[in-house]
Specification:
Chain lengths: 313, 313
């Protein structure tokens, strides 16, 4: 009889193919949800990003769940997570590095007017100009100052931008002006010429990018959302862009992913869309995270980065 | 009689308008070449980027010349520079910061496949993918490791890329693999997956981006030229792109600027063109550089950053 622990992989098909071979090489029995028939009582561990409602609750012998992403909102938003089962968040330095690359790139594309130069090239037009706004006058505000937010803040400050951050509790980072709590939110927003959302999605942060938030920002501000689609009220963003109050937005995450071809976001002239690529971990790193975590549980230990299911942090 | 020193501004019309008001407010008499009539013997100082051949030599009482750019090739390439007159190079920290922003942005746009996602958005296509090449396997090589090159190297290394540099003499920079001299050039090129040209234009570096250089680089490599158009043999680049050996290029500088609408570079599918905007100093900084330099000369001092006209450094 096979004594290896059984891992259930619950993931969209195209990602699964990146991991299945590597997972199968590990000291586990792999079951792929949707592809393989399985008895729910036989599942020891699950690896997922956004499991179907009720599924995890039906796995009565589950000993641990691993999140494929840094955010665990996909597990907790339906309120049906089996609280007795430890939920392990994916924490990976390469994820923070990738996010910082992406955020710095998008801040610079906006600040250096790269899209204007792309459009000028298409018309064979030499659009040389001095930057309309100096770097030291372009304030970047990060919503969320966790480990990823702090790395992004450092990389942005390196390029000469004044950087601030907003979080639940005040953070001590030498080059970041820290705003904390609801009382300081409007003061934070009022000085964010470029706003980057890096928050976890919880019931407190859902819809935080809304009409009130945009109105509190300086005229001509730019919005970058690399957190979750649920943070953004899409209609409010479109209204703030169409009124001319905001100058543009870069969206990497959406309420529905893949973003449907019918979405008006695709063709809005002030919105750049990327397909949830700000931080995608290399398959080898994800597989190691799951296999190391399973090994820890099997030795009777608790892996690092177990989430407090009540607060989602 | 007006005892103020006379400064001759020799600059393309559209830039001149940015500086003229600010220069006129200084303790000098301003003469604008092309706009104002002037006696050549009355000129004490000149501020220019690329003076017409023979013009500086005709100014017999010239006491100093100021370069509007960090590079002074525009003064020296015709061999008619009046060697007795000190030539002062524009050195400005904001210029290095701007260059580092631009180079990091272009390295990331290539590495993170941003142009592919832009094209996918135009087709409303969700092109999600894992990065085809890991950051730690993407080696960035800088041709030129002066003060600007070293700052670019630091900013690129911050994002996890292995960085090397090539210069005449070996440099000691903790995170940069330093290659030096002709003997090590091919070894340097052989490991440059992304090559960034930041060299001064001299008779030694003219045409350095040529077929031999491209052939020495790894297959699929990417070229960024933010130095001078004279560094690049355009036909050799197009051939290396069309053969598939190089994967793409970003060009900010050109042999003829503005790049003529007839240039095939505008519409090459693997070439991105920007209009010499990698590092443009703020008008106030340029004006201060010239006025401070004139004041130093008038006090009988020599300003910093006087160029050795023989070596062009």
């Amino acid at each position: 009889m096979d004594k290896r622990p059984t891992l259930l992989l619950i993931a969209p098909g195209k990602w699964g193919t990146l991991w299945i071979d590597k997972l199968q090489a590990g000291p586990i029995r792999l079951v792929v949800h949707g592809r393989d028939a399985y008895a729910t009582d036989a599942i020891d561990y699950a690896l997922s990003f956004r499991p179907p409602p009720g599924l995890l609750k039906s796995l009565r012998n589950l000993k641990g769940v691993f999140s494929l992403g840094a955010g665990v909102d996909g597990f907790l938003e339906n309120g049906d997570y089996p609280e007795r089962v430890p939920l392990v968040r994916f924490v990976d330095e390469t994820l923070a590095v990738e996010m910082a690359q992406f955020v710095v790139m998008q801040v610079l594309i906006h600040h250096r007017r790269q899209r204007l130069f792309d459009a000028a090239q298409a018309q064979k037009k030499w659009a040389q100009m001095v930057l309309p706004r100096r770097t030291e006058d372009t304030r970047v505000g990060l919503l969320g100052l966790g480990e990823i937010g702090l790395l992004c803040a450092e990389r942005i400050a390196d390029h000469g931008f004044p950087v601030s951050g907003w979080s639940r509790t005040r953070k001590a980072a030498p080059r970041v002006t820290s705003f904390a709590g609801d009382d300081e939110r409007d003061a934070f927003l009022g000085q964010a010429d470029i706003l980057v959302c890096l928050l976890s999605l919880t019931r407190h942060t859902k819809g935080i990018l809304n009409a009130g938030t945009f109105a509190a920002m300086p005229a001509g501000a730019f919005v970058i959302n690399v957190a979750r689609g649920g943070h953004l009220v899409e209609a409010d963003l479109v209204a703030a862009l169409d009124s001319g109050h905001l100058s543009g937005a870069l969206l990497d995450v959406f309420e529905t992913e893949p973003l449907p071809p019918t979405s008006p976001l695709w063709s809005h002239p002030k919105i750049a869309v990327t397909p949830h690529v700000a931080a995608i971990s290399q398959p080898g790193v994800v597989v190691k995270f799951a296999l190391d975590g399973i090994a820890a549980f099997e030795r009777g230990e608790r892996p690092d980065n177990i989430v407090d299911v009540k607060t989602a942090y």
